[in-house]
């Protein structure tokens, strides 16, 4: 984890928020490369969950909503974490997190740790609106989800959607986490990417849909290169489930700090639409009913963190991030072999300008080639393209593969097709 944290800062993936003022716990900023990584993750998710399907549409709801939403959804009452307090150092820890509890007990070495009774703390973040008293107390959304439910009837009446169908959304959520930590893993401000999929209220069908989405989401992570052996499903026991869930399964990753939730797949039944008193009229049968909801809810920040952790590789010569080309910040880096040879620089810049129209690429002419490879490996650039003296004669360049460090000669006119073919794999 220390290596990832240090690389994330050194190479501009993740910075502490307001660092020059000492930071603020649970908040993070993404640097230039982290921003690209996150944008790529979100774009791939949207492609897979919205553009790639006929039965899903997207929305973008507001972060602050009428506070009545949160009363109806049960969040004001039940969106809580049970916390216990260590009687030695008064640190509060989630009562349901056995790993953190035992880690904390070990940190006190020989002393026997006693804990207070578990107390519930609400996670909603309050904000006050208006300029005159009394101000309106509202909330930063604790999950992006409610924005979808309160727009359910708007979407049905304004689009040609018919059950079964889904509404997708990506956006920021906020939780007053008492114990933020492990870099961005548990933050107070984070992004979610969610699908709410509406089905008929039928046990067997909804169970099938739940299983289908569980597998679809697992395949999405492995398809983007996450090591299969580091992923597993974890079914929630009765006392783990959120207040809205009939049943739930997490996709977990074997992180350096233990098996940890990547994404939650929830069967929310009719909890939300029922609470908001929203129903659906079947256009074929005229039957009126409250649909059930199967939800896939992933964290963008957790995905970015686990992609970084999973792709981090070291060998005797170098550190590299074996990121899938689809999510790597740069798809290629273009170099002139020597920076002081105008012919080489001009040709390399031309290639760069051309590839820039189709991909996010970078140009580098500092230091020697070895150093440039090292710098690109560390940020996960899958291909380094070098223009040498031979290139001036034959219009071919050397393309070096990040993971194998092997090199191939490729025609300049074939580069775009070459990168595209790798992105499709
Ligand atoms: N709408 C359902 C929902 O919000 P959740 O399991 O509470 O379900 C879904 O959250 C995902 O959001 C998690 O799997 C995780 O990836 C991300 N997430 C939740 N809390 C987070 C936090 N404090 N920091 C970063 N990501 C978080």
Show the helix and strand layout.
Layout: H1 2-10, E1 14-16, E2 28-30, H2 32-51, E3 56-58, H3 68-72, H4 75-78, E4 80-85, E5 92-94, H5 98-107, E6 119-122, E7 125-129, E8 136-140, H6 146-150, H7 152-158, E9 165-174, E10 189-199, H8 203-223, E11 231-235, E12 247-255, E13 258-269, H9 271-275, E14 280-281, E15 288-289, E16 292-299, H10 300-311, E17 312-314, E18 319-321, E19 332-336, H11 342-356, E20 361-363, H12 369-378, E21 383-387, H13 389-394, E22 396-401, E23 407-411, H14 415-424
Parallel strand pairs: 3-9, 19-20, 19-21
Antiparallel strand pairs: 1-2, 4-5, 4-6, 7-8, 9-10, 10-16, 11-12, 12-13, 13-16, 14-15, 17-18, 21-22, 22-23
Helix pairs in contact: 2-10
Fill in the keyword field for this structure.
single chain; 425 residues; alpha+beta; BirA Bifunctional Protein, domain 2; Rossmann fold; 2 domains; seven-stranded mixed sheet; five-stranded mixed sheet; 23 strands; 28% strand; globular; binds glycyl-adenosine-5'-phosphate
Give a written overview of the molecule.
With 425 residues, the protein is α+β, with helices and mostly antiparallel strands. The protein has two domains: 2-63 and 130-310, BirA Bifunctional Protein, domain 2 (2-Layer Sandwich), CATH 3.30.930.10; 332-423, Rossmann fold, CATH 3.40.50.800. It has 14 helices and 23 strands. It has helices at 2-10, 32-51, 68-72, 75-78, 98-107, 146-150, 152-158, 203-223, 271-275, 300-311, 342-356, 369-378, 389-394, 415-424; strands spanning 14-16, 28-30, 56-58, 80-85, 92-94, 119-122, 125-129, 136-140, 165-174, 189-199, 231-235, 247-255, 258-269, 280-281, 288-289, 292-299, 312-314, 319-321, 332-336, 361-363, 383-387, 396-401, 407-411. The strands form seven sheets. It has a seven-stranded mixed β-sheet with strand order 3-9-10-16-13-12-11. A five-stranded mixed β-sheet has the order 20-19-21-22-23, with helices on both faces. It has a three-stranded antiparallel β-sheet with strand order 5-4-6. Helix 2 packs across helix 10 (300-311). The model has no long low-confidence stretch (mean pLDDT 95). Residues 143, 145, 175, 177, 186-187, 190, 192, 194, 261-264, 295, 297-299, 301-302 line the site of glycyl-adenosine-5'-phosphate.
